[in-house]
Amino acid sequence: MLTLSRWKVTAVILSVIFGIVFTLPNLLPQKTLDALPGWVPHQKLNLGLDLQGGSYLLYEVDTDALRKERLTNMVEDVRTTLRNDQIEFGELGESGGIVRVRITDPAKMDQAVSLLRRSIGGPLAGAIGGRDTSVSNKGDGRLELSFVPEAAKADAAKAVDQSIETIRRRIDALGTKEPTITRQGSNRIVIQAAGESDPARLQAVIGQTAKLTFQMVDETVSQEDMIAGRIPPGVVVIPGTQPGAPPIPVAKRALVTGEDLVTANQEFDNQSGQAVVAFRFGGSGARKFGDATTRNVGKRFAIVLDGKYISDPRINQPLPGGSGIITGNFTPESAAELALLLRSGALPAKLNLEEQRTVGAELGADAVKAGAISLAIGAAAMFVFIILAYGLFGIFAALALVVNVLLIIGIMSMTQATLTFPGIAGLILTLAVAVDANVLIYERMRDEAAAGRSPMSAADTGFRRAMVSIMDANITSLISAAIMFGFGSGPIKGFAWTLSIGVFTSVFTAIIITQVLIGWWFKAAKPKKLPIA
Q1: What CATH number is associated with residue 146?
Q2: pLDDT digits over 265-287, tens only?
Q3: Which of 121, 188, 290, 506 is packed most tightly, with the most Cβ within 10 A?
Q4: Can you tell me the distance from the alpha carbon of 352 to that of 328, in angstroms, rounded to the nearest whole number?
Q5: What is the DSSP string of 336-387?
Q6: Alpha-carbon span 328 to 310, nearest angstrom
């Protein structure tokens, strides 16, 4: 194993060059780094929230509100479906998670059941031919509709996944670098934004649902009717976003939603000079918007954001292109923020803030300093131990440890992995494991030399027979790291990621690099005995 094969020498040289080139940007001032040519690596380690400072937010997805909204939509779907097929009904409403309706014509009961089973709800994910709703005939003309239990779970899981992606797009648009957004439990989301010291700014963008709908204004309902509570079925009264804006009655069912928006940008109106939000629908959204404006020329429709109307303009002419503008006494900043929210998409459900923490930049700098000191002390202690215990071979092991550190930092910089304070602990543990590998090899060499083997044979046998123990130990560490990464939270994942990288670099440096160095020494010195015997 001590033969100086070409691939081993090449691997050692390339690993040293790689470690130096990708670690160097972390040691250079930013001005010096910016002045370097473009082909030189510029990636630095991403410091986690605990090292850089930033904001920590914990949100809970309001799945109960999501379920209530779906039930409300089901009521309106039942109403529209039965009316379109001219099936008379009454007592339509929802309570306890069940939608109830009475079919007044017994002769049309079977038709109503078949129609509702075919039209209400949609396919159930993961079930071939299954639907997410059930329709039950309770006798005496009464029908009950509800979501199957699997649908509720699927909706909640989908809402959390969609929320994570929407939050990521919103934070990326703010320019926050490498946010960590993870699921916690079944319906919670943890957001760690390193370097973002203003959590209120994050909350303003993250917490707003930004659900945009276009709903027709019901002009048959007067202010007196609204005050008296005489609201017809299928109509809801909503407030305005501007202070003092009177509430207006609108159809519960939206004509078009913001899900089909292609783009939204802050612009200035050519006539008034005020900030506005220009939007454009694409594909089916443009067709639905064009059809809706064509059918309702002369009528008012409300532009509704999160249950409050921004404006309620009158449709003066059809808008077949699917484009328009939203006015509402915006400032340029508020218009830009609304455009950002609309571009990134609406949250499927409301987010409730459960916890908020801010880590100051000073605390982060103190953590970096403490981590660097602990790493330096740990490395120095290991260097002293290995050199005192094994002399020249200990120096070879110390050089391999230096390359190991360079490789770990270089790989994390290249992949833009995030280094956390627990990650520094993982780095120190990695060095200890690497030293342990060299101890196993050198002690085996001593045993073989004491048994009468020649120096070359003892060294070769030491590497070969220690290999099994080294691989067992590192595979066990890798499995542990995989479990921690799969089931742990942010800091645990940082520790596991650093440890995983360190397992591979430690095996490489402890075996290959020390082999090459000892091989060179044997070739140059031609020793009569091992320096550790």
Answers
A1: 3.30.1240
A2: 888 887 778 888 888 887 777 88
A3: 506
A4: 27
A5: HHHHHHHHH---SS-EEEEEEEEE-HHHHHHHHHHHHHHHHHHHHHHHHHHH
A6: 6
